[in-house]
Request: fold
Amino acid sequence: MTKWEYVTVPVLVHATKQILDNWGSEGWELVQIIPGMNPENLVAYLKRPIGE
Reply:
């Protein structure tokens, strides 16, 4: 059975692709992205299998 680790990441609207590409290059997969506390910020939830 696959075990997962998770991380919550603040994402700036104007740099969304760059931030997600950076995390993706480390093996993280985007699960969900939701609005943050203000319109300029988002919150991304990412996961990856433990041990990568």
Notes: The mean pLDDT is 93. The first strand starts at residue 4 and ends at 12.
